[in-house]
Automatic annotation (TrEMBL):
Organism for this UniProt entry: Martelella mediterranea DSM 17316
Amino-acid biosynthesis among keywords: no
Name this protein carries in UniProt: Tripartite tricarboxylate transporter TctA family protein
Domain DUF112 intervals: 17-437
Alphabetical keyword list: Membrane, Transmembrane, Transmembrane helix
UniProt KW Ion transport keyword: no
Length: 500
């Protein structure tokens, strides 16, 4: 607790507080612009953090951007029926109809307040669970870590958008992309195909910039913009009354808890948390027929859950070094680039790092509430910015950021190549999250597997005899079988409906 108090005191000093405010503001602005996302913003910001005073300030800025970007997505979701972030998809179902009725300010106010409550409740879980889980994880050996990574990859693939096969394929391709370079165990070169520039492998930052940012630039260059009805917002009804708090209390708590626990599961993300909370609110409502027609309960459920997933997703990040979402994968990359090893030992070797993340999450949520409520009218004008004007600037910053990493033109080509790869994967409906998380976790999985095999003289028996490793392996197998069975059953039912 002393480390938490110390980290909070540091953030409340002028310079870190400024970085937190800047991160929340930039995140909210980017989240409000259709076509841009928090992952794009954070990925482009990572190279700039090398020039900051300390990695503490870098983490404060990045986590604040995370909070702001998820919250900002509700602006375009409500006013344009275009979610600024994927997490705000469910908000469009009721937020936009409310705006059409002239209740844009009220819809935004409900969403902003619900986002704050969701973030606050998830922070309670984050500060409560993280230290205990970190202590528990210090007893893990190489077999436990290997099976945990395996479980995370299977879970990510099984719950990704599209089929299980495509999710597994994306994870495998990500792991394959991490292989070129020096073998960590033997020191021998592998999969370089005679190219000297491949000897160092593909750096994480150019891969992230390519997959998440350049791919989106290519998408918006190729896809024509469609005309959209634009609605302006006012501050009317933006603040919740005491009666609103009483009416929405159960919905807020339930949706926040659902979002938090969905966020803790690796790789699922805010979109699934929002869908689950929205579905629960609709099923438990006395008037489910109102959902999708401008129901306030739908906006509250969606926004409380998607912000709550942030705190939930940070739990596996700070305790075990496992990314709970795509942005968490980028944050792990940022920690590695600053020579910090994510995982349970971080609480022992650098306790100020996880507690800085935890403290920033709390303070950023408070700032988000103030920034969003006070600037909604101004932020609603961001939807008028043509995306086509932003894309060349974004591409330029991507290429500069990848080059500045090691001053190598090779990294620029890597960024462009993985941009094309990311674009193609999205075109064929292969999810990007398993690809990137597979790229990041492959090195950990390989090193832990080899360590375990060396300790057991080449035997895989500990996979089945060590209780925790066996549990993780069993969960992986069950999830794999369950997902394939679910897809087979769904295809069979669709075929039967077509015949009938």
């Amino acid at each position: 607790m002393d480390a938490f108090i110390s980290a909070t005191a540091h953030i409340l000093t002028p310079a870190p507080l400024f970085w937190c405010f800047l991160g929340v503001t930039l995140g909210a602005v980017v989240g409000a612009i259709p076509g841009l996302s928090g992952s794009m913003l954070i990925t482009m910001t990572v190279p700039l953090t090398f020039f900051m005073g300390s990695y503490y300030d870098a983490l404060i800025l990045l986590v604040a951007m995370y909070v702001g970007s998820v919250s900002g997505g509700l602006v375009s979701a409500t006013l344009l029926r275009m979610p600024g972030t994927p997490a705000s998809v469910m908000t469009t179902l009721d937020g936009y109809p409310m705006a059409q009725r002239g209740e844009a300010g009220r819809a935004l106010g409900l969403g902003i307040t619900a986002s704050f409550v969701g973030g606050l409740i998830s922070w309670i879980f984050l500060i409560t669970l993280s230290p205990t889980l970190a202590v528990w994880a210090t007893y893990f050996g190489p077999w436990e870590y290997f099976t945990m990574v395996l479980m995370a990859l299977v879970l990510i693939a099984s719950l990704s958008q599209g089929s299980m096969v495509k999710g597994l394929l994306a994870g495998f391709l990500g792991m394959l992309a991490s292989m070129p370079g020096v073998d960590p165990s033997t020191g021998m070169l592998r999969l370089t195909f005679g190219f000297d520039s491949w000897a160092g492998g593909f750096n994480l930052l150019p891969v992230l910039l390519g997959v998440f940012v350049v791919s989106q630039v290519l998408k918006y260059i190729i896809d024509a913009e469609r005309p959209v009805m634009r609605i302006t917002a006012s501050n009317k009804g933006i603040f919740m009354s005491l009666a609103d708090w009483k009416r929405q209390a159960v919905n807020l708590i339930r949706s926040s808890v659902i979002g938090t626990w969905i966020g803790i599961l690796p790789g699922i993300g805010a979109s699934i948390g929002s869908i689950c909370a929205y579905t629960a609110a609709k099923n438990l409502s006395k008037t489910p027929e109102k959902f999708g027609t401008g129901c306030e309960d739908g906006v509250v459920a969606s926004e409380a859950a998607n912000n709550a997933t942030i705190g939930g997703a940070l739990v596996p990040l700070v305790t075990m070094g496992i990314p709970g979402s795509v942005i968490d994968a980028i944050l792990i990359g940022a920690l590695l680039m600053h020579n910090l090893q994510p995982g349970p030992l971080l609480f022992v070797t650098n306790p100020e790092v996880p507690y800085t993340i935890i403290s920033t999450h709390l303070i950023a949520n408070v700032m988000m509430l103030g920034v969003m409520l006070l600037s909604v009218k101004w932020m609603s004008k961001l939807i008028l910015v043509p995306t086509a004007y932003l894309m060349p600037i974004i591409l330029m910053f991507c290429l500069i950021g990848s080059y500045s990493l090691q001053n190598r033109p090779f990294d620029v080509w890597v960024t462009l190549a993985f941009g094309v790869i990311g674009f193609v994967l999205e075109k064929v409906k292969v999810p990007l999250a398993p690809f990137v998380i597979g790229f990041i976790l492959a090195v950990l999985a390989e090193s832990e597997l080899r360590s375990g095999l060396m300790a057991s003289a080449g035997s895989i028996e500990p996979l089945f005899t060590r209780p925790v490793a066996a549990l993780f392996l069993a969960v992986s197998v069950i999830m794999l079988i369950w997902s394939f069975w679910g897809e087979w059953r769904g295809a069979r039912l669709r075929k039967r409906d077509l015949i009938e």
